Each structure stands twice: as structure tokens, then as C-alpha cells.
Amino acid sequence: MIDERLRGPYYRATLSEIRADVEARGPVAVAEDALTAINRINPELNAFVYVDPDDVRAQARALAEIDAADRGPLHGVPVAIKDLIDVAGYPITLGSKVYAERVAEQDAEGVRRLRAAGAIIVGITLTHEFAFGPTGDVSAYGAAHNPHDLTRMTGGSSGGSGAAVGAGLVPLALGTDTGGSIRIPAALCGAVGFKGAHGAVPTAGVFDLAPSMDHLGPIALDVEIARLGFEVLSGATVTPQTTFVARRQDISQVPYVDPRVAALVIDAAASLGASTGDDPVGLGDWARMRADAATVMTREAFVVHQDILDVHREDYQREVWERIDGGREIDEATFAAARAAGDELRSELQRRLGDDDVLVSPTVGITAPPIGERETVVEGASGATRAIVTNLTTRWNLLGFPAISVPCGDIDGLPVGLQLVAKPGSESALFAAAAAWEARRTR
């Protein structure tokens, strides 16, 4: 439960309530409420790194002049944008001193589509530097703070977007996801985070981390808003569907899963119809797949950054440049073998999974660690925090499968996320399962 002083105007709001409010009071009043809440709450959350109140008000006034028949599906809805995604005229610094003076020349394609749908861009949210970190506490702007406990991580790299939505400052925010960077902050901050199949949402105007694994997608208050955000971003319609087949994912090889988290997810899977007596779906050698994903991500990140890093190393956060520089030692044969292993498992799972199959697992095996923690203890065993929080998410970026994280209760007041995964083309089943779980959880 979030302390009342940290709750924004959209805390636990529904899409119908948000639309009714815009209809009743108009975009100008709605935008003003969002600005007031950001001004009041953001000093504690550090979710937003840039807000231009004059521009926000100008957007709202322009939307107020649009005839009802011409309004888009996000008319008057405040939306936040991760500091990796270009917004024309805004400083988009990628969370780094390297680009401290950078101003975007034009909107990213995803931002353009949000504007066309009627969204109000209310500000830029904190990213882990260059989106290369799952903790959300390493950037030129410091750490984002989890609204459920200000001493805890938001997760990353889309930590500011996760915190902004989790606190209800906005109902929808954009994030990117290369190894879990939408789903992890959504899970740790109590929001919904969705990444579609690789390539489903255009990434033009988004700074690359690892292009073959990069995804753009929404972090939202609930499943309905996440679905709408995805439809706007992708230009596709998710066909309404109520049928799905929930199947437990075998996570027996995955270390550092808190038994309390596992218990919540097993109960959720059973609620969705996955029998605890059935054999869970095995996904091959977990350790090898994790290593392959790390190989691809690190090598591609090094290729993106090599020229910049060689000149501006001193302006990078040390933790980030050390990770990127690790790609220097990965040769082409090792990289190709890792890509091939991912291709092989992708093909295998596409054959094994039915069109309505939805795999169920935790999103993150633990709740939010303290800000700055780099070694986390789970059941007496210590491991690297960065690895622990990405243990269950990264493979789906290597494979390019759509995945969603939805809230699944809490442990000691800190949210737990339920991850649902389907094969590409089965987004309707995925959203059906997510909506079904959300309805059961909130009853």
C-alpha cells in the first residue's frame, strides 16, 4: 500500500474513470492536476527528470479545441516518456552526462502515435544510464525511488516510468525492454508492464541498447490501459478474447526465487487453471540461455557504444561502462553461436506452444531490494542483484516473445509481479489471461 502523500490523481483509476474525467473537466484541468501532483510528489520519487509545464498546458489547450468526433482513444490522457525516447524539443539525455546537452530534434515514432491518439506528454522519466541496468538507481540524475518504500529500488531500466505509474502520477508511461526493463519496474512498483513480440512496436527515435533484443512498450495502471497503449503504439488491434490455456513455466533451474514469491505465483497459476499436478513447461538449459542472452546483449551494446565509449568513458557511470566494455572480448563466433541457440529455442517453443497457451511464472523472484544494493541474499544464498532481478525476464527478449507483468499481491508491503508469456501472434490470449487474473485479484 502506497502512503497517501505519494498517491497521484490516477492511483488505482480505471480507463473509464479517466475518460469520464477528461470528458467532464476537459484536458486543461486534467493536465493541471497532473502537473500539480508531479510538482508535489516527484521530489520524493525522482521519477521525472524533465517537465515543461508551459508545453504541457499548450498541448492540453490544443486538445480542448478538437471536436468530439475527431478525438483519439487517449484524448486528454497524461502520458510520461522514458529518457531514452525522443520528444521533439525536449532534453533526452539517456540518463547520462555524455548527452547532458542533447535536445531531440523530432518525436520518436511511438511518441508521434501517442500524440495522434490524443495523449498529453507530461514529462520525461528517469532511466538507468543508457538503459543498461535493471535496478534503476544508476544515472546522471541519481536513483528513482519505489513509491511503496522510498528506500527501495524501482527496478530498471525504465524505473522512472514504473514509479510514475505505480504512484498514480500518470496512468500510462513508455518504457523500453531489452532484458526486462519494462516488466521489472512494473513488477516492483505494482504496475502492469507489457512488451510485444520483437518488432511489433517501431523503435525509430529510441536510442539502441541491443537492437535484436530491444522492445518499446507501455507501463500502465491496469491491463486495459496497457492493451490500449500497445494498440496505439503498434497500430494493431488486439482481438477481444476470453479463452486461454494457462501452463506453469518450469523454473526449477532458476536460482534466487523467494519461496514466498513462488507460492503467490503458484496460487495465481492455479486460479487461472494451471494444475499444480501437471508437469510444468520446460524451457531447456536455463543457465545456457541466460549466458546466451547476456552474450548477445553485451556484444550488441558494445557495437552501439564503442566509438562513444572510447572518447567519453569518464562521463559514463562506471558500472555501466564496465558492462558495455565486456562486449569487447566477445568474438563473432561466440556471438553467432548465442544467436543460433536463441533461434533454435524460439522455433522449438513456437512448435510446442498452442495459439492459446500462456506460460506463467514470477516476473522477478524477489521483491524490491534496497537502493544501491549489489549483492542480495535469498534463502541464505548470496548473488548479484542485477542477475537475480533479470533471471526470469531476459530469455524472452532473446526469443522475442510477447510478455506481460501484472501485480500478484505483496510481501511485507512490497509488490510481486506475475509474468505471462505467449508465442508471437498470441497476444490476444496473453491479454485475456492477464485480464482474467486481474479480475480475480481485485474481486
Question: How would you describe what is shown here?
Answer:
The chain has a ten-stranded mixed β-sheet with strand order 1-3-2-4-6-5-11-12-8-7, with helices on both faces. By secondary structure, the protein is α+β, with helices and mostly antiparallel strands. Helices cover 40% and strands 15% of the residues. The protein has helices at residues 15-45, 53-64, 109-116, 159-166, 183-189, 223-234, 259-271, 286-312, 318-325, 332-352, 385-390, 394-399, 427-442; strands at 48-50, 78-82, 120-125, 172-177, 192-195, 215-220, 245-248, 357-362, 375-378, 381-384, 403-411, 414-421. The longest helix is centred in the first third of the chain and has 31 residues, at 15-45.
Spatial order of the strands forming the largest sheet? 1-3-2-4-6-5-11-12-8-7
How are helices and strands ordered from N to C? HEHEHEHEHEEHEHHHHEEEHHEEH
Q: Which CATH class of the largest domain applies here? A: Alpha Beta
The residue fraction in helices comes out at 25-40%
**Low-confidence runs (pLDDT<50, min 5 residues)?**
none
- What best-fitting shape do the alpha-carbon axes yield? globular
What class would the helix/strand composition place it in? Answer: alpha+beta
Any idea what the CATH architecture of the largest domain is? Alpha-Beta Complex
Instruction: Assign the CATH superfamily of the largest domain.
Output: Amidase signature (AS) domain
Distance between the termini: 17 Å
| Total strand segments | 12
What's the pLDDT, averaged over the residues? 97
Radius of gyration: 20 Å
Tally of helical runs: 13
* CATH third-tier fold name of the largest domain: Amidase signature (AS) enzymes
Number of domains: 3
Percent strand: 5-15%
**For the report, how would you describe the main beta sheet?**
10 strands, mixed
